Amino acid sequence: MTHPTPAAERRYQSGFGNEYASEAVPGALPQGRNNPQRGPFDLYTELLSGTAFTAPRHENRRTWLYRRQPSVVSGRYQPYAQAHWTTGADREIALPPEPMRWGPLALDGAADKDFVDGMHTLAANGDAESQVGIGSLMYLAGRSMDNRAFVNADGEMLLVPQQGRLVITTELGVLDVKPGEIVVLPRGMAFKVALPDGLSRGYVCENYGAHFRLPELGPIGSNGLANARDFQAPVAAFEEDGGAYELVKKFGGRFWSAPTKQSPFNVVAWHGNLAPVKYDTANFMVIGSISFDHPDPSIFTVLTSPSDTPGTANCDFVIFPPRWMVMENTFRPPWFHRNLMSEFMGLVLGEYDAKPGGFKPGGASLHNCMVPHGPDEEAFDKATHADLKPHKLDNTLAFMFESRYRFIPTNFALQSPALDTDYTDCWAGLKDQFKP
């Protein structure tokens, strides 16, 4: 890249959904007009719309780009093979109403895979064409994307790195993302991923539905959970001599590839409210009970993608970070439950308090609609006999993609050697303890 600050000094703009403005060269951003007859320095004007033009003002997302060449300049697209990145639910798969769990997905064979080729769908629901539902994926990669870029026309992407840092070059600038941080990449925006630490693994939510946004706070008040100012968007940066590129595009669940003679990362200036952002989960303000009982896990919601039913999300992104537990006379781990919402869960680091032994970083679990689940035998026994002093759950970060729609695992996930076929045995020792 040219004109960005070095990685150690890279600057960001703060806020989520803000109206940003950034220029890599002073004077490259037009003043007073979005689409002047001739752009500054003879740059091309291009609009990236993330919503329909007539979406309500508070929901409208778009960004104006001022670039050296428009994105329409490319070669012809040819089919591209990516067998493990599937889209939407495969309703031909018969799925029993049972909990499911996977161990950490192995990185064997990932050394020659980049972020695109190393992507694997584990479970999905909905349909990208109908703009409903999400996919839950993992990337297993060891090679950086050099002169190669990717565009996802099917949905926005929420990335949760678990092993290895990501340096993500987007049309609007560069984001450095480490495990413990997340990044949201808008639908339709070109990006590439470098892997400075080599072999890398992480989770991805491919959101076919409404944009992720901050949840309403209700009686919590004006502050709490994730603060808008802690989300960081990149400053403008462009490649001066990027050379020829391969552009891979996901479109209608299929993959396509086209050559370009120039870098797609040629945006010299931009302004708007549709931008990639990163967020450090260490900045999440955890809220919980300081008397007794166990509040609903919705208090851990970082971002939400609403559906047409108020309060029932297309997807909630929920985290379980380090936090103090102080409740009196209370079973402190998550209780046994059956939910309307379906839960795909991952572990970034440490251990999860409801599954201290069986759930590992880099693994995943799936508890669909009305499938019973909860703490395993070890966690239940420990929690019911614990001396309830205040204690801190530390060195841990778990998360959930929670959706109103049922997840259906892919054939890759069902045939994976990481699938724990004995998962339900972790509850087998919970005996009848009734003592009238």
Walk me through this protein's architecture.
By secondary structure, the chain is mainly beta. The protein has a domain of 140 residues: Jelly Rolls. Helices cover 3% and strands 33% of the residues. The protein has 2 helices and 28 strands. The strands form 6 sheets. The chain has a 9-stranded antiparallel β-sheet with strand order 1-16-20-13-10-15-8-7-28. Strand 11 and strand 12 form a beta hairpin. The longest helix has 8 residues. The termini are far apart. About 1% of the residues have low confidence.
Per-chain topology:
Layout lengths: L11 E3 L5 E4 L20 E6 L12 E6 L10 E2 L20 E3 L16 E6 L9 E8 L6 E5 L3 E8 L2 E5 L2 E5 L3 E5 L5 E4 L5 E8 L23 E4 L10 E7 L2 E7 L6 E6 L4 E4 L20 E5 L9 E6 L2 E3 L16 E8 L14 E4 L9 H8 L6 E3 L3 E7 L4 E2 L1 H5 L21
Parallel strand pairs: 9-17
Antiparallel strand pairs: 1-16, 2-19, 3-4, 4-19, 5-18, 6-25, 7-8, 7-28, 8-15, 10-13, 10-15, 11-12, 11-14, 13-20, 16-20, 17-18, 21-22, 22-27, 23-26, 24-25, 24-27
Listing every helix as H and every strand as E from the N terminus to the C terminus, the arrangement reads EEEEEEEEEEEEEEEEEEEEEEEEEHEEEH
Q: Tally of extended strands?
A: 28
Instruction: Name the poorly predicted regions.
Output: 4-9
**CATH structural architecture of the domain at 282-421:** Sandwich
Largest sheet: 9 strands, antiparallel
C-alpha end-to-end distance: 72 Å
- Note the total helix count: 2
The coarse silhouette is globular
